[in-house]
Design a protein that fits this description.
The structure is a homodimer of 462-residue chains.
Chain A lengths: L7 E5 L3 H9 L6 E6 L3 E3 L4 H5 L5 H4 E3 H4 L6 E5 L2 E5 L4 E4 L2 E4 L2 E4 L3 E3 L17 H24 L11 E5 L3 H17 L13 E5 L11 H13 L2 E4 L6 E3 L2 E4 L2 E4 L2 E4 L3 E3 L16 E2 L5 E2 L2 E6 L4 E2 L12 H21 L20 E6 L2 E6 L2 E4 L1 H14 L3 H17 L36 H5 L5
Parallel strand pairs in A: 1-2, 1-9, 2-5, 9-21, 11-12, 11-17, 12-13, 19-22
Antiparallel strand pairs in A: 3-4, 6-7, 7-8, 10-18, 14-15, 15-16, 20-21, 23-24, 24-25
Helix pairs in contact in A: 1-8
């Protein structure tokens, strides 16, 4: 590299960590390249709202390009990074390489099926806008198909078997999904159907460990479980799913019907972590130095959910947005200092301090006016915790426009119980769907041979 | 049918015609069943705004179920109708039949490729939310891919070849798409890219006939063409596309590059029209009686874009929203009268009056503050016509919530020139994309072998 040339910083991944790093470096004498395989940053903490038809994709995602448009030294590329050559200092994309002086890898994590990738087709996870739209499609479609089949085999009165929804995993995402699903069935959809009763939907939340929200203190876990039950969710802890099939799951030898199965268990780091050639932990996260760089490469940083690091007390820094934001800023500030005063490739590198995670507290939402919050020794549950959650999330939503729109949207839903984003787009089929009464969709004959059928398929006319 | 039983009206299709018919019948002693293969009504006049990233799908579409939720006698089924048995009076769906006393078929029209269905993959049309998202994906992705390739083969200064967008068809949809595309390139995207200049995008509008917007008077067509040119659109009339290929089109023997091709030519009626067994016109529309019923079946009505009917002066009633709304209401009112006072299957049918189309005028928008309007002899162009267009469209947007949100959205875009819905979801590939300099995407070597390449792929370091 020409030592007089503007140093180039490449940031891979425009999540919370990557975006914050780019913003810190935006006014430096450096050329910043942000690479992401999507054109948009997704505000992941609200993804479950898209999945449950409360918000539209555009309300929780914004083009990376427009978030960073005012920074003349930042360029954005929509491309898939396939590897790195740390010796030549290049990022590898299909048919293209981008050189760097500093590299920040922030490609995060996704859900994992513990070696059963074939389950994904029957039990989608929730990490991207596309995932959220797929979950929304399945949830809403289940009601539509149930209504259609109930109307075909209709009997006097309301005798429909409930729809069965299963959420696998009792972490924050699973709890949010289960709680919000329970609410939309009770309120938003309650008056929309004539043949089925959405209120009778059965929602089952399965957690492998002994309690939901295991990263919170025990009293808050208990409170969350209680709030879930009050919303009508059945919670089963210490329960492992042994198999996922179209339309059902197995727990040991027991088979449970499931119109829709949602996967909120298991997090695996982005596979790009392994391409850095450094040791990774069991979840594929890169073991980083206290300064967030990787061993032997002070110019390469790994941040956010992709990084594995313990704090002073030996506790793992959690894979949450505040940690990613703090790490993104920390790495960018180290780079900024070195660009100004030296360089890791210079003869005498500047000494670096260690990253310290500042835990401001945690919030998890369960439903309308239901949440838990933990700020050190202060533990809050219910409406107050929910207000805190609402405030923090609207405050941090990226982009002023979205903040206002989301607020209007929420105020509207809160008053009317209405869900504003209930479109089904894409395929109109559901894997394993055989109807609530296990009717073969190719035949209109219900297994219990309802006598009313004749009136429906062939009406005698005078 | 038991003559004492509640009569059953089945409405197939929940566009403007079907929804209005359902609403007229909502308070009658009749059981109304609305069947649509989507769960949502789409406000088609604003679909081009979703395609050009101005509005989100949820802002122009609403679940049919929630639009009709307050009418206790109306049920909604999401299902695909595959045929009719007019003798037995049943609507046929896969594995299910629904009997009717009255049937209203309102399944509208879609675009046609004049026998070249293989063109659809390279030139999507605009009839559904899915279509609009596909067009949005392609338009935005073209810029992203161009930026990526320009960054890879970058030369000093701004030397990119412009992106070529081709819109086939100069009717209202083609004009809206071309005009709005021109605007987003000039304004919304102008500051977002570092390596390409979106302002240099070339937009070509092709019309087979002698003038754009042929259903309007000649002076307004000329004005629309002039307004399009001012926005930077190249308009070619009397030009037929002879072939569509991935990344290019042919006009006779001439081949033109096209990064994105959009299809706004050719309308064909829904194939369900032919299943009624009545004569259809060249576009597949059902020739209806003056009372909108089909010959020999006074209990079966065809309305909206699927119906073919001439007014008193022998002019074809146009396939526009107001005509569909008026026809839906007309048919429903006939049915209401007969349910109250008699029945077409009764011994003595009531005499029926003929449908009369009340043409309130036509509006076509071209871009920001650009439109034309024709109210009888009053012809308006430009800002005033655009204001009229805006007013009418916000007024008729279905559902209060959307109306407010769309207004906020538009006020915001008008002031800031920002497009709020610029997410790329789904595939990140573009058919026929070879890059602006015709670079093979599998290789980073531009055909003109830019010498800067070496610096990019392998930077010598000290």
């Amino acid at each position: 590299m020409n030592s007089k040339a503007t140093p180039r910083v490449v940031i891979v991944g425009a999540g919370f960590g990557g975006l914050n790093a780019a913003q810190v470096l935006a006014r430096e004498q450096a050329r910043i390249t942000v690479i992401d395989r999507k054109n948009h940053h997704t505000f992941q903490p609200l993804l479950y709202q898209v999945a449950t038809a409360g918000l539209s994709p555009g309300e929780i995602a914004a083009p990376i390009r427009s978030i960073l448009r005012h920074h003349q030294n930042v360029e954005v590329l929509m491309a898939e990074v396939i590897g790195f050559d740390l010796e030549r200092r290049v990022v590898e994309m299909t048919g293209q390489e981008i050189p760097y002086d500093y590299l920040i890898v922030a490609t995060g994590a996704s859900h994992t099926y513990f070696g059963h990738d074939e389950w994904e087709a029957f039990a989608p996870g929730l990490k991207t806008i596309e995932d959220a739209l797929e979950i929304r499609r399945r949830v809403l479609l289940a009601f539509e198909l149930a209504e259609r089949q109930a109307a075909a085999g209709e009997t006097a009165g309301d005798t429909n078997e409930p729809l069965d929804f299963v959420v696998v995993g009792g972490g924050p995402t699973g709890v949010e999904l289960a709680g919000t699903l329970a609410e939309i069935c009770r309120h938003a959809l309650a008056h929309d159907f004539r043949s089925i009763d959405p209120k009778r939907t059965h929602i089952l939340l399965l957690e492998g460990g002994p309690r939901v929200l295991p990263s919170y203190s025990e009293d808050l876990s208990r409170s969350a479980e209680e709030q879930l039950r009050r919303l009508g969710v059945e919670v089963r802890t210490s329960t492992m799913v042994t198999r996922v099939e179209p339309g059902s799951i197995r727990i040991g030898e027991t088979r449970l019907n499931a119109s829709v199965i949602l996967w909120a268990a298991g997090v695996a780091a982005s596979p790009l972590g392994k391409k850095l050639g450094s040791p990774v932990d069991r979840a594929g996260r890169v073991l980083v130095q206290p300064d967030l760089s990787i061993s032997g490469h002070p110019e390469v940083f790994v941040i956010g959910d992709l990084a594995s690091l313990k704090d002073d007390s030996g506790k793992m820094i959690p894979g949450v947005a505040p940690a990613a934001i703090q790490q993104g800023r920390f790495a960018a500030e180290l780079i900024r200092r070195e660009i100004r005063w030296g360089s890791p490739v210079a003869a005498k590198p500047l000494p670096r301090k260690a990253f310290r995670y500042w835990d401001k507290g945690s919030l998890a939402t369960i439903g309308r006016a239901a949440a838990i919050a933990e700020f050190g020794r202060i533990h809050i549950s219910g409406f107050l915790a929910w207000l805190a959650w609402l405030f923090v999330h609207i405050l941090f939503l990226i982009g002023f426009r979205n903040r206002v729109l989301v607020f209007i949207q929420w105020a509207w839903s809160y008053v009317t119980y209405e869900r504003g984003a209930r479109l089904i787009t894409g395929s109109t089929e559901l894997p394993g769907w055989t109807g609530m009464r296990h009717v073969n969709p190719e035949s209109s004959v219900p297994e219990n041979g309802a006598p009313e059928r004749e009136e429906i398929t062939a009406v005698a006319r005078k």
